[in-house]
Amino acid sequence: MSNLNLLAESVEFPNLFSGEIPISRVAFSVFGFNVYWYAIIIAAGLLLAVVYCSKRAKKYGFTSDDITDIALIGGLCGFVGARAYYCIFWNLNPENTYKFTLWTAISEIHMGGLAIYGGIIAGVIGGILVCKYKKISMLTAMDLGGTGFLIGQAIGRWGNFVNQEAYGAATPPDYLFGMTGSHIASEMGSGVLVHPCFLYESLWCALGLAVIHFVLSRIQTFDGELFLYYVIWYGTGRGFIEGLRTDSLYIGPLRVSQLLGFASALFCLILLIYIKVRVSKSKTYVRWKDTDKAKYRIEKYHMELKLEAETAKAYKAMKKAASANKKEEIAPSILGDDNDE
After folding, report:
1. What are the residues whose beta carbons fall under 8 Å from the beta carbon of 10, sequence distance 6 or more?
2. Residues in Cβ contact with 283 at an 8 Å cutoff, skipping those fewer than 6 apart
3. What is the secondary structure of 280-324 as a DSSP string?
4. Given CA atoms 297, 303, 308, 309 in this order, what sign does their dihedral have?
5. Helices (H) and strands (E) in the chain — how many of each?
6. Its pTM surpasses 0.85
7. Triad 154, 114, 110: Cα angle to 5°
8. Residues 106-165: pLDDT tens digits?
9. Number of neighbours of residue 211 by Cβ within 10 angstroms
C-alpha cells in the first residue's frame, strides 16, 4: 500500500513553473483528530453536485427534497461501495501480500483506498432504491446524477493531488505537464517526472460537464439519455487515463477500471443508438417531466413551500402585533393616568 505518513510535503511542475508547491494532507485538527484535505475536497465536490442537481430538479420533474433524499442515500451507498470495490480487487491481486480484513477495510480508511467505479455502481443502486420508494423516475434521477458525478469527480480528483496519488508512469524529462513531489520521489526516484493523471481526469470530467450541460441536454429525447452520455464520456476517458497509472487494480493481466471503462462506454453507446432510434419512431413516448404525475408533484411541492412561507410570515406579523399591544398596555402603568390630578 502507498506510504502516506508524511503530512507536510511538496509538489513540483518544473517544466511549467519553477518552485515547489507546499502541501499538507491535514487541513486542521480538532481535539487531536486530524481533518484531511482529501475528505474536505471530496465533500465539496459532492455538495456542489447536489446544489447543481437541486437547481435543475424542477426542469426534470423533481423537487429539491427528491434530490436531497437521493443524494443522502446514494452518497452513503457510494462511499461504502467505493471502499468495498477497492478492498475486494486489492485482495484479489496475488501480487499484493497485504490483505484487507473487514476490520482493516474500515479502520484504515484514512490511509486512502476508494475506487470511483465502486462508488458509482453502489451510488446508482442506492439512488434507484430511493426512486422506487418515492415512486419517481429512476432514469431521470440517473440523468441528473450522471451530470452531478462529473462535478464531484472533477473536483474530487484534486484530493489525489494533495495525497500525491493516482499519478502515472514516468514521462520524458522535458514533458510540459510532468510532475514530481516529495512522496512521488520516494517511490519513483529523485528527479523522475510522472503523468499527473489526477489532472487529466479532472479536466476530462470538467469538459464532459460542459458538453453535456450546454449541448447534449438540449438534444435529449428520452429519460436516461444523459446518463448514457456520462458513462460513454467518462468510460472512454478513464480507459485511456487508467493505462497511464501505476496504481491500478488488476484482474489477472487486465486493469479493472480500464476494462470496465471501455466496456461500459461501448455498451452504453450501442444502447444509446438503439433507444434513440426507437424513440424517434415512437409517437407515444413521454418523458417523466412531461407526465401529469410529475407536474402535479412539482405544483403540490411549491404550493406547500408557499403555504409554509406565508404561515411563517403571518406568525411573525402576529407576534410583532402582540408585542406592540403589550407595550401599549404597559405604557400607561409606567407613565401614569392623564386624568389623575
Report:
1. 20, 21, 22, 23, 181, 182
2. none
3. HH-SS---GGGSHHHHHHHHHHHHHHHHHHHHHHHHHHHHHHHHH
4. positive
5. 11, 7
6. yes
7. 110
8. 888 767 688 889 999 999 999 999 999 999 999 999 999 999 999 999 999 999 999 998
9. 14
